[in-house]
Structures are given as structure tokens and as C-alpha cells.
TrEMBL record:
InterPro entries: Myocardin-like, RPEL_repeat. One of its GO terms (biological process) is positive regulation of transcription by RNA polymerase II. It is found in: Nucleus. Its main location: nucleus. PANTHER family: MYOCARDIN-RELATED TRANSCRIPTION FACTOR, ISOFORM H, MYOCARDIN-RELATED TRANSCRIPTION FACTOR-RELATED. It comes from the Eukaryota. Transmembrane segments: none annotated. This is RPEL repeat protein. RPEL repeats lie at residues 9-34, 53-78, 97-122. Keywords: Nucleus, Repeat. GO terms for cellular component: nucleus.
Length: 125
């Protein structure tokens, strides 16, 4: 580390660029100097307890797995988590195949007219 030729000027330059007290307080680097340290400590402890109580309340009132299954948030499956993605992909593939099969077997417009499901003026041109 080198020492500048004029340390007082270097120190003045650094002091000119330092943040003000309120900025340090806003960024939680420094405690508010207007409030007694004992009160600040008590306030911080109360805030921690408030957060702990809120988290404990949320944990105590979280929904059960059954409720999450009913809301379609969780899947009701007996498959290992590592295989669940493959199971979902397989189910999707089976559904896609079934839909493609049904689309291929659907009747054309002439059959629908013969069965009385469509009329001639309802047929798209």
C-alpha cells in the first residue's frame, strides 16, 4: 500500500464522497442515531418475534396434502417423484393419441347431412 504525497488532501477527497448518515440508516448499515440503542435493540427483537409468529401461524395453517390434491395443486400419485415427470408426459401422450384417433374417425359433412345433424345451408363453403 502506497502512501499519497499529501494524505490530508486524499482524506478530504474521501470524506467529501462518503454517504450521509441518513443514507447509511436507510441502507441498514448504521442504526438511527436519534433513537437510544436499548430501544433499537428492543424494537429489533420485537420485529423478529413478529416475523417468527407470522411464520409459525402460516406453518400451522398450511393446507394438507389432500386439500392441495383437491385443488389440483398437487397430483395424487403413488409414483416416485423422480418418475412423476415421465408419468405426466406419458398421460399427455396417451391423451394426444386418443384425440388424434377420434379426429380421424369423425364423420365428414356429407355423413352429418345424411344423419340430419347438419343442413345444407349450415355447411361451410
Amino acid at each position: 500500500m502506497t502512501v499519497p504525497e499529501n494524505p490530508s488532501k486524499a482524506l478530504e477527497a474521501q470524506l467529501a464522497h462518503r454517504p450521509d448518515v441518513q443514507d447509511l440508516v436507510d441502507r441498514n448499515i448504521m442504526k438511527d442515531p436519534k433513537v437510544a440503542p436499548a430501544i433499537q435493540q428492543h424494537r429489533d427483537e420485537l420485529e423478529k418475534r413478529k416475523i417468527e409468529d407470522a411464520l409459525r401461524h402460516k406453518i400451522d395453517h398450511r393446507p394438507t396434502a389432500e386439500a392441495l390434491v383437491e385443488q389440483n395443486i398437487l397430483k395424487d400419485t403413488k409414483v416416485a417423484p423422480a418418475l412423476q415427470r415421465n408419468q405426466v408426459e406419458l398421460e399427455r401422450s396417451l391423451l394426444q393419441d386418443a384425440l388424434e384417433h377420434k379426429i380421424q374417425e369423425r364423420p365428414d359433412t356429407s355423413e352429418l347431412i345424411e344423419k340430419g345433424i347438419l343442413t345444407e345451408d349450415e355447411v361451410p363453403k
